[in-house]
Design goal:
hydrolase, globular, 2 helices, Sortase, Chain: A, single chain, mainly beta, 8 strands
């Protein structure tokens, strides 16, 4: 990612909240302005990262520890400036935010998915919060390669305190962010976001 495009990504991201929830069936994001987070980034871990990969869009995602094996679609920004989420369908899948690096490139690649998909039931990321440090995540890429990551941290945070800097901020190695909803639920709305941080290995 070039410096101008990276700045565009961070600027857009800081004005948007990744929701990743199932619910009303419109498939749109819910924009808000998250406050920057003061705690140190979980990516500050001393885990050694592998050599970066070339740019190639993700087409699949596998997380053995929680039995996820899903296609990955591309996502952009909704009309309100928030990050899109995958559509609410029975054939639920994860979505890669295409203004972020591809998995394996230097920087934080962002993939989100639903925890529930309305009347269809559980979403593809329903067990995301069960992941633990060291668990494996494999992104299958369009060029036939695979980017394998190891989980470094899992956080549940209130949406009103979404840690935009930790999720979108520049890092000097290939990292991955998986995001969904969590915490108490009221109808189709969840109070929190579950965020998984991982590093290429």
């Amino acid at each position: 990612m070039t410096a101008p495009s990276r700045r565009l990504f961070v600027t857009a991201a800081l004005g948007s909240l990744l929701v990743g929830c199932g619910g009303n069936g419109d498939g749109g994001g819910q924009g808000t302005s998250p406050r920057p987070s003061s705690p140190p980034s979980p990516s500050a871990s001393k885990v050694k990262s592998a050599r970066p990969l070339g740019r190639s869009k993700p087409v699949g995602l596998r997380i053995p520890a929680i039995e996820v094996d899903t296609p990955v679609m591309g996502l952009g920004l909704a009309k309100d400036g928030s990050v899109q989420v995958p559509p609410i369908t029975a054939d639920d899948r994860a979505g890669w935010y295409r203004h972020s690096p591809t998995p394996g490139q230097v920087g934080p690649s962002v993939i989100l998915g639903h925890v529930t998909v309305g009347s269809y039931g559980d979403g593809v990321f329903r067990h995301l919060g069960r992941l633990r440090q060291g668990d494996r995540i494999v992104a299958r890429l369009e060029n036939g390669a695979a980017a394998e990551f190891g989980v470094t941290a899992v956080r549940t945070v209130a949406k009103a305190e979404f840690p935009a800097d930790d999720v979108y901020g520049d890092v000097d190695r290939p990292e991955l962010r998986l995001i969904t909803c969590g915490g108490p639920r009221s109808g189709d709305w969840y109070r929190d976001n579950v965020i998984v941080f991982a590093v290429l290995r």
